[in-house]
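Appendix C. Worked example: Putative chlorophyll synthesis pathway protein BchC
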Amino acid sequence: MRQVVLTAPKQFEVREVPVPEITETQVLIRVRAVGICGSDIHAYYGEHPFITCPVVLGHEATGEVVKTGKKVENIQPGDRVIYRPQKICGECSLCREGRYNVCKKLEVWGCQDTGASSEYYAVEKELVYKIPDHTGYGEGTIIEPLAVGVHAVKRGVSGVKGKKVWVIGAGTIGNVVAQSAKGLGAAAVMVTDVSDYKLEMAKKCGLDYPVNIKNEDAAQVMREKFGEDGADVVYECSANEKALNQALDIVRKGINIVIVGVYGNRAAVNLANVQDREYSLVGTLMYTEEDYLEAIGLVRGGKVDLKALISKEFPLEQTAEAYQYIEEHKDDVQKVILNVTAQ
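Step 2, the predicted output written as structure tokens:
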């Protein structure tokens, strides 16, 4: 089968490798679509702090089950599925607490271990989930980042229903965080960015207040839309030091600011404001199974629009061209999908 390897920054190689053999507790998936994630882009540039080359990317992937092991129940050939790309130890204190998304030995397939940028992929049965019938393979890949959004939203507030939410950054992660918040009952969501393209996409996805901060003042718009108290919680999805510090300057005291974006470099943060205004800076990483199932539920219930996020599609063998396209269209591209056709 074909498999695409990032051998060095900005260098891909298509290789022929054997189709994986499955164990009695695994399923074999014929991969149909792989989403290109922001972390993949960081790896492509050699800037991801936790991914090194060579690596087979692809932690957002959907496909069709073609074979199951003897001990696999409730999943059968023909099922349309997505997988949860978490490899955990199951033994550390964090795993025992149910926080296995931050397992001490966590490896993410497509980041620290082999991902799904290939024609077939073997996965443990407990990590495989059926995608809703009305969901295409391409849009289905976005269930994975949607689960990231669901988890992030819950890290910010114990219950988002009725809350006023500010999301910084209208890229894919910012969009799915905002859609998750809205789908889970937020009263209103403001999304800020400098890209008209991404903000227009946010508008198409039903988000309340897309704001281009090149043209409008975020603090003023927030007061106009949310009232004098402003946002109840902030989600920083841009990985932009300036944007984070702006939030620390203008949001009301005592709220949570969730760091969702992956910072490639150390950020200079105004900790004086954090201390003086009693902000809580909260980290968030991936998701748990509960978040994954909740994300699938949002899709099944029509609470989110994932298809609107797809800007362009390429065949798997044109992976290098897909990444080059993203590099050349930073301001007018959102989600790029690699379609896989077995030969």
